Amino acid sequence: MPPRDRSRKITKAARDLLPGGVDSPVRAFSAVGGEPIVVAYGKGSRIWDADSNEYVDWVGSWGPLILGHAHPAVVEIIQRAAERGTSYGATTELEVELARIICGAVPSVEQIRFVSSGTEATMSAVRVARAFTGRDKILKFEGCYHGHSDGLLAKTGSGVATLSLPDSAGVPASFTAETLVSPFNDRDAVERLFAAHDGAIAAVIVEPVAANMGLVPPDAGFLQFLREITERNDTVLIFDEVITGFRLAYGGAQMYYGVVPDMTCLGKIIGGGLPVGAYGGRREIMQMVAPAGPVYQAGTLSGNPLAMAAGIVTLRALTNEGIYRGLDEMGARLAEGLRNAAREAECENVTVAQLGSMLTVFFAQEAPRDYTTAKGADAERYARFFRAMLDAGVYLPPSQYEVMMCGLAHQQRDFDETLAAARLAFVAAR
Ligand code: KE4
Question: Which is the closest atom of ligand 1 to the Cα of 403?
Answer without folding.
Answer: 19
